[in-house]
Amino acid sequence: MEENKKSKIYKIIMLVILIVFITFLITSIGFYKYFTNGDNASSLLMASSGDNNIESELKKYRALIDKYYLGEVNDEDLEEGAIKGYIEGLGDEYTEYISKEDMEEYMQDTMGNFVGIGIYMVNDTETNRIMVLSPIKGSPAEKAGILPGDYIMKIDGESYTGEDNSIAASKIKGEEESTVKLEILRGTETLNFEIKRENVIVNPVEGKVLENNIGYIKFTSFDENTAEEFKAKFEELQKSNIKSLIIDLRNNGGGLVDQALEIAGYIADKGSVLLYEVDKNNNEEVKKSDSNPIINMPVVLLVNGNTASSSEILAGALKDLGKAKIVGTKTYGKGVIQELLTLKDGSGLKITSQKYLTPNKTEINKVGIQPDQTVELPDSVNNILNVDEKDDTQLQKAIEILK
Question: In this predicted structure, what is the pLDDT of residue 123?
């Protein structure tokens, strides 16, 4: 009797276990079907075994787009957007993808001529606005009355922020003889301009003779012919019997490294180390002056917080070699070099490939160059991009040193 009772209990327990197992199995199959064949979007994002590369991830999101997206899909735009996002994922502010359509424009800018209105623009990070660094001399922008320090708020009626600087620059450029409308904020005043685009030939090197036979040369970028133009301007000033030289690199955002090195070579002794370029494997490439100097006189460089990149290469080399005194405020601190890679489809990748060190092997990236004499502009100066000579304490200090 006792054994029959135990047998019944055992059978009941086994039946319960079997029912639980079957219920679990049915539930699992139901959930599996829901996530693999149902309408839930999560099913399209679940990765199968080993399916974890970028291509497979993009395919899943493409499946979502095809299933749910209401609008038209342009495959080329999707592909370009994916590439841009992938490159932006590096988190490097200097590395960027350049589309085939933008490459020609980019190369024109680098070489120093383009169709546009002729302004240098920067992202004013304090206000997140696009600020005019300076109009190019003789350009449509200068003729129209655009001034350094103006904020570009709208282009053809569309608003832009400082983060949109590159996009805004491409919108300002366009077909020769066409026009662009700019809404400008100048102080508290809003101004509107309609400017005709022209073929702008950039000639950034300016020069003059100051008191006490001091030569003064200023340029705002290192373009394809900057070194040649610098040399021509110096030789022109030499005919006026200058005895010393001020090179104004304030608000010079950089450009082509070889142009900075060539100008450094005009001042440094032949064979002097001008720069160390170091790649990701710590391989060093040494850049040296390969010619005798043509400038054999005291030199002062003026710098500020907008002095960056190739400007810092020039300033760092001459400071370390004892060939120039540096006056002003600490420089920007861009001590990395970008290489432009052209791809088969005509697009490009501007990629940070090296860092640079000064002749004393000093790193500059995110540090900057400290001047030999730190001189601030007076508080009365509202716009560092457009300083009257009488208020320019940095220039006055340079003149004092050279006297």
Answer: 87
